[in-house]
Write a structure and sequence with these properties.
There is one protein chain. This protein is globular. It is 31% helix and 9% strand. By secondary structure, it is α+β, with helices and mostly antiparallel strands.
Length: 303
């Protein structure tokens, strides 16, 4: 009887130990059909008929863990291409831009690699998928480590974010239930500098990000040159519109009045970390600050 009790005690101890063992991997999945549901509704409204469901099914299956790195982007290309045959339906295109940013299933709690091929449709340039929150903590990617950064992007900051959302997506959630605006495409300055700029070494070796900052400021200033109050934007975004400082409120740019003292609204390169700022400054000072990052081309890269 003592022997039997001992065996039971040992068995319970083993079972308890096994159940308490930490799980190092967690499968993160989602209801994939929800990722294209809004696009299908827009497609049918635009007259896409049976093509909507066919393309949708192809698209949402690319979010499965077995999908290849560029399958999701290829499917989004099909979504945009169909939209172009339906009077360039803007809702279909916008929703395709959001779909291409939807996180993919992660079977091992690691971040999913990014596609390293440019899309066929320019409407998808600069868009890449967010990561699910549960994959970001590891700081690691699955696969052969060749897709750890989106094409033409030098860093994803914060990690796991995408143009539509400045944070990773809650595990299992659909991006199209969080945002209605695809956001601003990531800068492709590193991959394809604008006319008038060139890839150069940083003037300060301890700050290798300076040239990228300068080119990003030029691209923003070129964009701001034609921006107007009321233009579509991503909530919280800062910009220049009609020469004045503007913020995005309820999906539209709202200006706060012209800059004082003869100043104008411009994007400036940051000097101590990667990124840019939007502020009021003289054009001459803005040009000097951009030149100090080691790039040429003046305020917008076209000079």
């Amino acid at each position: 009887m003592v022997a039997f009790s001992s065996l039971v005690s040992v068995g319970l101890l083993v079972a308890t130990s096994a159940s308490a063992a930490p799980l190092h991997q967690k499968r993160i999945a989602q209801t994939i059909a929800d990722s294209t549901a809004k696009w299908v509704a827009a497609c049918q409204k635009a007259g896409g008929a049976e093509q909507c469901s066919t393309i949708s099914q192809t698209a949402f299956t690319t979010l499965l863990a077995a999908g290849k790195n560029c399958d999701q982007q290829d499917a989004a290309d099909q979504m945009v291409s169909l939209a172009k045959t339906l009077n360039n339906d803007p809702d279909m295109i916008s929703l395709a831009q959001i779909f291409v940013q939807q996180p993919r299933n992660a079977p091992d709690s690691l971040q999913v690699p990014y596609c390293q091929t440019a899309p066929k449709n320019p409407e998808l340039n600069g868009f890449f998928h967010c990561q699910f929150q549960g994959t970001v903590a590891s700081g690691k990617f699955s696969g052969d480590q060749t897709g750890n950064l989106p094409l033409g992007v030098s860093a994803v900051n914060p990690p796991g974010s995408c143009p539509a959302l400045n944070t990773p997506v809650t595990d299992g959630q659909q991006l199209n239930s969080i945002v209605s605006n695809p956001g601003k495409p990531a800068s492709a300055a590193a991959a394809a500098p604008k006319v008038g700029t060139r890839a150069v070494a940083s003037p300060d070796p301890s700050k290798p990000f300076l040239p990228d900052n300068g080119q990003q400021a030029q691209q923003l200033n070129a964009k701001f040159a034609t921006a107007k109050a009321g233009d579509a934007c991503q909530d919280g975004e800062q910009a220049c519109a009609d020469g004045a400082f503007a913020q995005c409120v309820a999906g539209k740019l709202v200006t706060s009045g012209p800059c004082a003292g003869g100043l104008t609204c411009v994007a400036l390169p940051l000097v101590n970390k990667a990124g840019t700022s939007v502020t009021c400054d003289t054009e001459a000072d803005a040009i000097a600050r951009i030149a100090a990052t080691g790039v040429s081309g003046g305020l917008t890269g076209s000079g």
